[in-house]
């Protein structure tokens, strides 16, 4: 017959049970705390956007905790940082251009000037040109030269400002949209306005500098894209169009604005067909178009998380890829803008 349990034998087992009970209570409290990460099924309806991202959501967080979540891992962390770093990059490029630091601001232009601009330039001619350019900078030229005033920079800075506004509004949206339904809707509209502004302002450097000697085309093309952009912004201010149901419609609006650029692009290629900078400029602009269109395809298709739901919750999902491609597209357009500036500084009307 087993001896009856003593008080001393009960104490260890009760302590273990108490510890387990506290652990369960602690886990339950953490799951129900306002700053816990939740699953897609636990989200309020207004936050359910991508059903292939299953976990690591923030929902109804206070603003302070939402702000400091920039240093925590959740499924928006890389969305925030990709465009925050992009904003810092473009802010740095803007400052270096404003204070005229050629070592940084003209880095891309340096590389474009180092390569032949057209196929009919042979090696010997290119070498002679480089030699003459080098000697002309080291020797005193006693012949008077016509002074060419640098072209105005405001269209270039309009593009930089539009890019920074887009990247910053996207950062703010992804960081704070977890606070409340009202703020979520407001920040989504701000994000769409930022994307539209970036598309509009991207037209300013190429159209202004290519058609600088024909102001009529300034008015037609810049006026056209501005009206189309304002229509897009007003349309997207409708709350219903901010829902996931109209994701494809929003992508169509943004794509139509970008495709509007085909008309002035073909026109510019025709009137500047003999321009030696044509090939370099087209390479940059085609690169920008490919980055933006590829990003849009990722945005709409939700690849790769569509094929492996839950695998890409923290890193590698479609919206993060879309963000990276947007920054790459903006950098490609920045390179093209430097080519436009360098050309117009030496070729006025």
UniProtKB/TrEMBL annotation:
Keyword line: Membrane, Transmembrane, Transmembrane helix
Coiled coil ranges: none
Record's bilayer topology term: Multi-pass membrane protein
Localization (cell): Membrane
InterPro entries per record: AdipoR/HlyIII-related (IPR004254)
Region: Disordered, residue numbers: 1-20
Spans traversing the lipid bilayer: 78-99, 154-178, 190-211, 217-237, 249-270, 282-300, 321-341
Name this polypeptide is given: Heptahelical transmembrane protein 1
């Amino acid at each position: 017959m087993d001896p009856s349990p003593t008080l001393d034998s009960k104490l260890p087992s009760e302590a273990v049970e108490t510890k387990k009970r506290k652990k369960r209570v602690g886990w339950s409290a953490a799951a129900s705390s306002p700053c816990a990460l939740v699953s897609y099924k636990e989200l309020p309806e207004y936050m359910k956007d991508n059903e292939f991202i299953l976990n690591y959501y923030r929902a109804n967080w206070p603003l302070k905790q939402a702000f400091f979540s920039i240093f925590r891992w959740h499924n928006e962390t890389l969305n925030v940082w990709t465009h925050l770093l992009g904003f810092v990059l473009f802010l740095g490029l803007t400052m270096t251009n404003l204070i005229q630091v050629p070592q940084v601001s003209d880095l891309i232009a340096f590389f474009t000037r180092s390569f032949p601009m057209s196929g009919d330039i042979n090696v010997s001619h290119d070498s002679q040109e480089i030699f003459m350019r080098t000697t002309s900078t080291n020797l005193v030229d006693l012949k008077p030269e016509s002074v060419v005033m640098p072209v105005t920079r405001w269209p270039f800075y309009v593009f930089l400002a539009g890019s920074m506004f887009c990247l910053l509004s996207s950062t703010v949206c992804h960081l704070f949209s977890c606070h409340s339904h009202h703020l979520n809707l407001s920040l989504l509209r701000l994000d769409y306005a930022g994307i539209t502004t970036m598309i509009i302002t991207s037209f300013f450097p190429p159209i202004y500098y290519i058609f600088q000697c024909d102001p009529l085309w300034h008015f037609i093309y810049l006026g056209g894209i501005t009206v189309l952009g304002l229509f897009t912004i007003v349309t997207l201010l409708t709350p219903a169009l901010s829902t996931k149901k109209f994701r494809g419609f929003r992508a169509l609006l943004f794509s139509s604005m970008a495709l509007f650029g085909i008309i002035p692009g073909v026109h510019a290629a025709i009137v500047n067909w003999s321009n030696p900078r044509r090939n370099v400029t087209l390479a940059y602009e085609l690169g920008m178009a490919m980055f933006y269109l590829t990003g849009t395809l990722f945005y709409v298709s939700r690849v790769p998380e569509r094929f492996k739901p839950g695998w890409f919750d923290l890193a590698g999902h479609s919206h993060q890829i879309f963000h990276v491609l947007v920054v790459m597209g903006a950098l490609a357009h920045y390179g093209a803008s430097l080519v436009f500036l360098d050309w117009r500084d030496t070729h006025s009307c």
